[in-house]
Amino acid sequence: MGLVALWSLVGLLVLASASWWVAEREMGDGAYYLKRQLIWMVASWGLLWLGVRTNLRRWLHLAPLALLVGCVLVAATLVVGSTVNGASRWLVLGPIQLQPSELVKPFVILQGAALFAHWRRIGLDQKLLWVGVFCLLILMILKQPNLSTAALTGLLLWLMALAGGVGLPLLLGAASAGGLLGVASISMNTYQRLRVVSFLDPWRDAQGDGYQLVQSLLAIGSGGLFGEGFGLSTQKLQYLPIQSTDFIFAVFAEEFGYVGSVVLLLFLLLFGFVGLRVALSCRSNQHRLVAMGCTTLLVGQSILNIAVATGAMPTTGLPLPMISYGGNSLMASLLICGLLIRCSMEAGGLASVPHTSRRRRPAPAR
Predict the structure, then answer these.
(1) Distance from C-alpha of 146 to C-alpha of 1, rounded to nearest angstrom
(2) Would 361 be classed as within a structural domain?
(3) What is the number of structural domains in the chain?
(4) Neighbouring-strand partners of residue 93
């Protein structure tokens, strides 16, 4: 709980610095994005509390229905979704924008754990049903198009299947199919192909396709050893695009330098270590896979976001959990944290045991 609270607090501070100048210039209120994120933060901590207070069995019973509803909402984005930058990923409900591909992540973890924990004991029909649902979900996310979230979802399920003991031939086949699907998506979508080409040599077109990565590298390099200081980034002054979401790490690195970046990576390492200990202490395979899935998603998505900002992989649209601006990502991340904490509580015997009715003793014979 302390690690999650620290992560959330640092995220608010970094977001305040990264978004203040742009918010002041575009919205007339420097705290515009920070205020909205605070509202989402309160709601998200409510979800975390719900995750902590609810028995994992109830979450696992809820997961199939929630996952199917999530698939329907993702499908709805392809029909009536709001299109931003060429991608239809959002459903607009009045003042609220929902991104189903983010909100469905906790239930992908739960249902993946329920499936792979009993893989050797369930029937072929159940296997085909849920593997088909997962494949359909990934394909619909890919159709939005959202290659990064589709790849993250597929990788998460693959790692959970590996931890659950699924056979190696099936895993190799799934990995090959996923790789071919990714190559096909890049080949058919021009903007994805340009991102890969510009990632290989962003300086060749520094004012065009490589602009985002070049500005991100300039920000990180400008931070030096100890950084420019909190709030003193210059690249965020409308040089670095989407500095409050996908490239917020570049602002962090410029302000806190190499030392601050290493501290952040060490924090992620510590969080991953604690999550792994929670998983190993769980008594059932289902709970163990839930804990592993939660830890993998939070730490893995953070590493992928940092890899994009530092030019270690092509530019994608993955937010930095609990730091990037966005209510949907924040709610999903904190609910996942709540599930992880619940796994720890149940493994350590700290969770309340559901009340069981005692049998009445027979009346003594007269």
Answers:
(1) 31
(2) no
(3) 1
(4) 96
